[in-house]
Amino acid sequence: MPKTSLDLMQGTVAVLILKTLSWGAMHGYDVSRAIRQRSDGALGLEDAALYQALHRLERKGWIEAEWGLSEKNRRAKFYRLTDDGRHALQSEVTTWRSYVEAVSKVLETA
Amino acid sequence: MPRRRLFRFPWRTAAQVAADVDEELELHLDLVAQELAEEGWSPEAARAEARRQFGDLEGTRKVCRELDSRKEMQMKWTESLGDLGQDLRFGGRQLLKSPGFTLVAVLTLALGIGATTAIFSVVYGVVLRSLPWKEPERLVRPLFITQEGERHGAFSAPNFLDVRAQSKTLSGLAGVSGGTLNLSGGGAEPERLPASWVTANYFDVLGIRPLAGRTFAPDEDRPGAPRVAVISEEFWGRRFGRDAGVIGRVLTLNGQPHTVVGVLARGSQLPAGSDAWVPLVFSENDLKGRGAVWFAGIGRLAPGVTWEKAQAELDLIAHRLAEQYPDANAGYMKGMALESLQENMIGDTRKPLLILLGAVGFVLLIACVNVANLLLVRAAAREGEIVIRAALGAGRTRIVRQLLTESLVLALVGGAAGVALAWWATNALVKLAPRGIPRLEEIGLDGTTLLFAFGVSLLTGVLFGLAPALQTSRTDLSGVIREGTRGSKGRGATRARGALVVAEMALAVILLAGAGLLIRSFARLQKVDPGFDPKGVVTFNLELPASKYSDDAKLRTFMAGLMERMEQLPGVTSAGATVYGMPLDDQVNVLTFSVAGRPPAPPGKEESMRIANATPDYFKTLGIPIMRGRGFTPQDRDGAPQVVVITEEAARRYFPNEDPLGKRIDLGWTAGGVTRGGDIVGIAADFKQETLSQRSEPQLYMPYDQAPLESLSVVLRSGRDPQLVALAAKAKIRELDPDLPIYGLQSMQEAVAKSTAQSRFYMLLLGGFAVISLILAAIGIYGVIAFAVRQRTQEIGIRIALGATGQRVTRMVVGQGMVLAGVGAVVGLLGAAFATRGMQSLLFEVKTSDPTIYVAVALLLVLVAAVASYLPARRAALTDPQLALRGEA
Fold first, then answer.
1. What integer pLDDT is reported at residue B9 of this predicted model?
2. pLDDT confidence of residue B492
3. In this structure, is residue B33 part of a structural domain?
4. How far apart, in whole angstroms, are the C-alpha atoms of residue B139 and residue B135?
5. Is residue B591 domain-shared with residue B692, that is, in the same domain?
6. Nearest to B516 by CA among B526, B508, B528, B505
7. Sign, CA torsion B42/B45/B51/B55
8. Same domain flag for B498 and B432
9. Is residue B120, in this structure, part of any structural domain at all?
10. B323 and B388 in a common domain
11. Helix (H) or strand (E) segment spanning residue B595
């Protein structure tokens, strides 16, 4: 597995999870694969951090979970975005964009 | 509020939460391992790689479990609160839907809770709340134990000083004596102030800080010290409009100028009724009179000293003083006992108040029972609703909770109404309370009593709500569906209602019996012959200040002028005066005496009796007959042969086998070198000296002229309005001495009424409770019988169709009520025999086992029950069989 120099902060993990779940309900494994695929594996997100973040978000009420059946007919916990979660995602994305913009400006003017 | 789910999964246990986390993580690891296996890893290696990739598996597991169980808890709470809100709203709606039921239930509860709260606030204020001073539990009253085993709190000056000097277990011992002071001068009308004479350390011992100014300095109770006074907040407001400049003002008290040095706050003063405190200065005479006991002591236990240690030390000191001064002390102080100041102040009031609290508790219980009964009846009507809720999946707990919530809503509304009632009732009680109940000024609704009312409301809500809720929730679904909604509840509920009615009947009987005993006792008291004729007699007091009336001659002159003027008052047929001789008065003067010609008694063993003086017309004015010999005449003046009149009781006790007339009595009282006393010239009838319930004690009278004293009680007999007579008397007295206030004005009929006021107060309260409980019990039995009749309509219809007469149906229904009442009466009488045992000390010439009371109470109850069940019985008898059979009646 490729390693990256990028170290992800907890807040970033949350945004990634919320974004991923905005495409639809999925269980933990799918969330982890989806993030890896979209980032071409550039983000070495540890599964441990992912699961802890999922449960933290659930407690926060930004996502909710329901037990269902996976493709292979095993009981799996499916996460879904709540209304609160959707609002949180929007504001997080805005914040993230302006942050990136600001950092980029500094880097480009150098 | 979050949106509620229609269906909710049952709550998970901690183990389930953990298992769910495990399963979720396991699935992830399996899927990753599978992925790797497809890439060609061996199963074991794939599994190991999956775990490695995952990172801190155990840590994650822990964090997730923790987060999930917290979330679970939070949801549970939210859900419960949501349910509670739902229950409350639903309960409120249900109660509003049947306003009749709700009104009756709330009123019943308000009555019960209100009465209980009011009585509790009195008990709390008088008995339970600690005294308002620093460490009040360390304040004590030292009491001497006499040879006869009686306890007396009175000190003589030498004994007081000795005890104070010798005791190391008391950090302070203060002396206090009550009385009245004449306030004069300043252009205003002279006024009589309730006052206290206290040693300089009094306020320090109690720990009383003044509201303004200071209390007494240590040397202000020495002879010759400048005269100072501390006044009450009440007096400060009344006389000086709370003027801050009162400190330093000079008041003329008993003709002497006193400088006001401080003001005491209303809540912290002792005694409560006092308006002025002046230093208790021991005169030379006081310091010589070791046998003259006349004031009370209040001590404070020194820090770290236990009660027992202080008690032992003071007992020892008393023994020593008795040995050292046998003449004065041998009989009086065999030992010393300590009583807490609070105990001493509450005294005899504790018991009747606790009895009242118990009684009002019964009223509350009856109210609960009645509401429970109403709820049971209502539950029957709500059976359909309950069945539907159960069928829709509400569990039994959920239904019980719903019903209990309704009861609690009911109880809290009732409690709120009860507090309003209690507020009114407490004020009324304080106004109605007879004198003699201590600490009345401390009674009122406050945080504690409100908390009590709230607690009582909650408790009653559970108490009356639980049984009906359980009963109702037991509804058998299939039974209801099979039988239709009528009568499916059957015997269980009927029996429960019957049991409740029996319980409340029994409680009512106990209260009625208690009230009956008090009423009978009061009636006995009313019939007591006071020994004088109170009709048309008015009395008032005068205190002749020693500063102005400094010798006997001045007193005699004043009295002669007074009697002359009083007799001239329009409408006055007879006038007299006495010192210490008034009936129904607590001023007592006891002196030792000896009968001439008998061997002298050993020191400390002398006989003693009540000694008073009287003017010639005193007996005639009060209507106290002279049984033998003669009363006093104007010729029995100073210088004439000394004469005395004794009462019949004195003759019986001290001259059992001889004729007392002509015998000479010498008193332990010498004045100007003359031993006071005299030849017995007459025997007066006995009369009630302090209270109507007491037996008359031996008493001796001397002519006023031969033994004048300063604290006069004047009596006037007239056919006129006492107020008018008093007004005229006041004007005449002003002529004699413009600085002399008259006080204690009352008609003798008022005095008689006052002496029964306490019994009357307790009788009225307990009687009131008994009446309320009887009414509630009657409503209860009416409700049960009426409901039974409604349920049995079909059966009764059949009976009537088969030829039963209306009379017979009536008898059957009333009979049912009688059975309940009978059982209730029997249980209640047994309970009453037990419960009233503690009341003996409140009763006058009535035994708690008085059978007439019990029979009367049982009859009354059965009668009330008969009337209460007759009403529904009438309706039953009028049942139209046709309608009944079709189920339309």
1. 53
2. 64
3. yes
4. 8
5. yes
6. B508
7. negative
8. yes
9. no
10. no
11. strand B590-595
Please name each of the domains of chain A with its CATH number. 10-109 (1.10.10.10)
Task: State which amino acid sits at residue B410.
Answer: L
A103 CA to centre of own chain: 22
**Per the CB < 8 Å rule, is A58 touching B20?**
no
The encoded tokens of residue B357 equal: 């609290």
Cβ-defined contact of A51 to B31 (cutoff 8 Å): no
Q: Evaluate whether B106 touches B410 at the Cβ level (below 8 Å).
A: yes
- Evaluate whether residue B697 is within a structural domain: yes
Chain B environment of A59 (Cβ under 8 Å): 67-68, 70-71
Decide which of B63, B87, B111 is a domain's last residue: B87
Nearest residue of A to residue B27 by CA position? Answer: A76
B371 touches B469 (CB < 8 A)? no
Residues B796 and B868 in one domain: yes
Stretch B584-600: mean pLDDT: 85
CB B560 within 8 A of CB B554: no
> Which residue in this structure is represented by tokens 């006492």?
B722
| CA neighbor of B756 nearest in space, from B528, B531, B539 | B528
Q: Where does residue B453 rank: exposed (0-12), middle (13-18), buried (19+ CB within 10 A)?
A: buried
Residue B658 has phi, psi (to 5 degrees) of -145, 170
Please answer yes or no on whether B68 and A70 come within 8 Å at the CB atom: no
Q: Count how many domains chain B has.
A: 4
Of residues B805 and A1, more confidently modeled: B805
- Say whether both B203 and B261 belong to one domain: yes
Same domain flag for B362 and B312: no
Establish if B138 belongs to a structural domain. no
- B356 Cβ contact list (under 8 Å, min separation 6): B119, B122, B123, B762, B765, B766, B769
Averaged pLDDT of chain B = 87
Q: Which ipTM did the prediction report?
A: 0.86
Q: Looking at residues A50-67, what average pLDDT do you find?
A: 90
**At A105, is the pLDDT very low, low, confident or very high (cuts 50, 70, 90)?**
confident
Same domain, B321 and B259: yes
Detail the DSSP E strand segments found in B38-167: 139-145, 151-152, 154-155
Pair B779, B697 in one domain: no
Range of the domain at B448: 349-526+762-886
Q: Among A77-86, B111-120, B581-590, which stretch is predicted with the lowest mean pLDDT?
A: B581-590
Residue B22, min C-alpha distance to chain A (Å): 11
Q: What is the 3-state secondary structure (H, E, C) of A40-92?
A: CCCCCCCHHHHHHHHHHHHHHCCEEEEEEECCCCCEEEEEEECHHHHHHHHHH
CA distance B304 to B413: 49
Which of B87, B106, B131 lies at the terminal end of a domain, its last residue?
Answer: B87
